[in-house]
Design goal:
Layout lengths: L7 E9 L7 H19 L9 E8 L6 E8 L5 E8 H4 L13 E6 L2 E8 L14
Parallel strand pairs: 1-2
Antiparallel strand pairs: 1-6, 2-3, 3-4, 5-6
């Protein structure tokens, strides 16, 4: 982006995969991660033409950590890439461009929770994410 002061809008569609049972605690955790950490963690993986991402949330085999299988899309609906994020690798992610105060929940449509995520500019002002030890 050439205009450093421009806002960037991203639509995040998320869902928990159907064949897994999530407790209320797990669902609360998923929502917290999707609101607080996930938008920060994916920022450096966005391309200039990414307008939306679809996220399928599941537990690792054996009921372990949460995984966020993510597909990145262009405005015309074509797929850009796929990446899976693991809960412990995105917890505490920092991205100064993410604007949680102006981002908002749009509701549930077509089985997905829709969120409008705002980044204050297109600069990658992230810092390395802490890794689990």
């Amino acid at each position: 982006m050439s205009d450093e002061s421009a806002e960037r809008l991203l639509i995040i569609r998320s869902r928990v995969i159907e064949r897994q049972h999530f407790s209320e605690y797990n669902l609360t955790s998923v929502q917290h991660i999707l609101i607080d950490w996930f938008p920060r963690a994916i920022f450096r993986d966005l391309t200039s033409d990414t307008v939306s991402v679809d996220v399928s949330v599941q537990k690792e085999y054996g009921g372990g950590k949460l995984q966020f299988a993510t597909v990145f899309f262009r405005g015309d609906g074509t797929e850009i890439s796929r990446k899976t994020y693991v809960e412990t690798h995105i917890q505490g992610a920092i991205c100064f461009s993410y604007d949680p105060k102006n981002s908002r929940f749009l509701g549930n449509k077509e089985g997905y929770d829709w969120r409008e995520v705002i980044y204050s500019d297109g600069l990658d002002r992230t810092v390395p994410m802490p890794r689990a030890t």
